[in-house]
From TrEMBL:
This is 3-hydroxyacyl-CoA dehydrogenase. PANTHER family: 17-BETA-HYDROXYSTEROID DEHYDROGENASE 14-RELATED, SHORT-CHAIN DEHYDROGENASE/REDUCTASE. Pfam families: adh_short. Belongs to the short-chain dehydrogenases/reductases (SDR) family. Signal peptide: none annotated. GO terms for molecular function: oxidoreductase activity. The keyword Phosphoprotein does not apply.
Length: 254
């Protein structure tokens, strides 16, 4: 799929992996809209790439529909959608006193990470279906973000692992269902990346995490996530796939 002047929407685009995706797509010539709750950071990134910032809560149907409509008004119907919005609170099923995790804590993660991903997928697909197809019959590309925790969830990650496992399970099904409309769906499952949250950790913690990686033995650069986004858009036969981006890491229980 081409990039030049194609409207692209990135959720969670104000920082971390989302920001890297925004900058990659903008550098390739896309008209990018950043959907995020962080207005200050979102506007900063949008100004840097001559893009558009839109306040959006991915867990809300009305918020996502309104954001896509606003982006469509300025840039046209979305051709590329990258969903990076997500949360990762850690909470055990039973705490030290044997009390169960509050159900609301589990539901919140599912609402943002899984329902939010589907929310963006469904609205993006409706936009893309209205676009003119290219010579392959392609109208759009959706990229979702899972995690290696979908496969090797660590202690305290019950909600996060479940939410990302749902994204993985949804990938092939969505690609099959949307094939008739010429829409590809792929997912990236990142390992340990140097996001702002990670950068705020002590150096010794960063070093200990890097030491667990087989090769290369360093944390991923968000630009490398952006590169995978670029490759998923560019390669027309890459569809229905979940790609682990993790230096061959297999997570231990804790």
């Amino acid at each position: 799929m081409e990039f030049t002047n194609v409207p692209a929407i990135v959720t969670g685009g104000a920082s971390g992996l989302g920001e890297a995706s925004v900058r990659t797509l903008a550098a390739k010539g896309c008209k990018v809209a950043i959907l995020d709750l962080n207005e200050d950071a979102g506007r900063r990134v949008a100004e840097d790439v001559n893009g558009l910032y839109l306040h959006c809560d991915v867990s809300s149907a009305d918020s996502v529909e309104a954001a896509f409509a606003a982006s469509r008004e300025v840039h046209g119907a979305c051709g590329i959608a990258v969903n990076c919005a997500g949360i990762a609170p850690a909470k055990k099923i039973l705490d030290r006193d044997g009390k169960p995790m509050p159900l609301d804590a589990f539901s919140q993660v599912i609402n943002v990470n899984l329902i939010g991903s589907f929310n963006v997928l469904r609205v993006a697909a409706a936009d893309m279906a209205s676009r003119e197809a290219n010579s392959d019959g392609e109208r759009g590309a959706v990229i979702m973000t899972a995690s290696i925790a979908a496969y090797e969830g660590q202690i305290g990650q019950a909600a996060y692992s479940a939410s990302k496992g749902g994204v993985v399970a949804m990938t092939l099904q969505s690609a099959r269902e949307l094939a008739r409309q010429g829409i590809r769906v792929n997912t990236i499952a990142p390992g340990i990346f140097m996001t702002p949250m990670m950068a705020a950790m002590p150096q010794e913690v960063q070093d200990s995490l890097a030491a667990t990686l087989p090769f290369p033995q360093r944390l991923g650069d968000p630009k490398e996530f952006g590169l995978m986004v670029q490759q998923m858009v560019e390669n027309p036969v890459l569809n229905g796939e979940v790609v682990r981006l993790d230096c061959a890491l297999r997570m231990a229980p804790r």
